[in-house]
Amino acid sequence: MSDTTNAAPDWTADELMTVNAARALHGSRTCFVGIGLPSAAANLARRTSQPDLVLIYESGTLGSKPTRLPLSIGDGELAATADAVVSVPEIFNYWLQAGRIDVGFLGAAQVDRYANINTTVIDRGPDRPEGRLPGAGGAPEIAASCRKVLMVLRHSRRNFVERLDFVTTVGHGSGPGDRAGLGLLGQGPVAVITDLGVLRPDPETAELVLTEIHPGVTVEQVTEATGWKLRVADSVGVTEPPTQAELAALRALKSGGDPRA
Q1: Extended beta strands in the chain, E state
Q2: What spatial distance separates the first Cα and last Cα of the chain, rounded to whole Å?
Q3: Per the CATH hierarchy, to which homologous superfamily does domain 13-255 belong?
Q4: Hey, which residues are catalytic here?
Q5: Can you list the residues of the chain whose pLDDT is less than 70?
Q6: Residue 129: its pLDDT value, please?
Q7: What are the structural domain ranges in the chain?
């Protein structure tokens, strides 16, 4: 009999991150979805534990059920599989800004200790041109008006920085009270899910704290991959590995295949 104690896991770090991001949508009914990692997680949640989850994209699609991961908010797959398609002003004015959406799901190029986001420009150093990023899109409004916000991105010092090169989207500003002072409606970011673990804002300071690590990851790995002195919870949990059903659904989504296969 072979010894499988030290066998390599049958999932990748990105799959582990996406599965845990999908699980974070448990109990949500409506989700305003960003393209990329957030879209993969939201669509996985709808295919597994949250079949009634209504996915909303800023291009105006309500209740999209794509058979594959959309390439952009303008991907025809979103409109073709939607319950309804409305104008962009209606999406923002009626659905988003009125606080009708449970969760906003966002990615980021840079995040700071208060879960503020940069998706606009990167300072590449002296005598080098700025690195241009995709920009804000609907992220500032999503973070301002959804009842809560989830974030998903890969964990490195390049992404988790002491100071943002540009503030595109306000998370918790510089601490407690900033969101209310700016008139922002929702709770703001409640969790940042990465390929190393999960960070959540401290209820008193709003600063991100490491609360969970993924299987095979150490606390030291996470702190070393963070560009500031990351606070660590007194008791750090370990996330559950992906199930075979979750992996099958995610892989089918990426390939455009039948999730039941």
Answers
A1: 30-33, 54-57, 61-62, 84-85, 103-106, 110-111, 117-118, 121-122, 131-132, 148-152, 189-193, 197-201, 208-213, 231-238
A2: 30
A3: Glutaconate Coenzyme A-transferase (3.40.1080.10)
A4: 58
A5: 1-7, 257-261
A6: 76
A7: 13-255
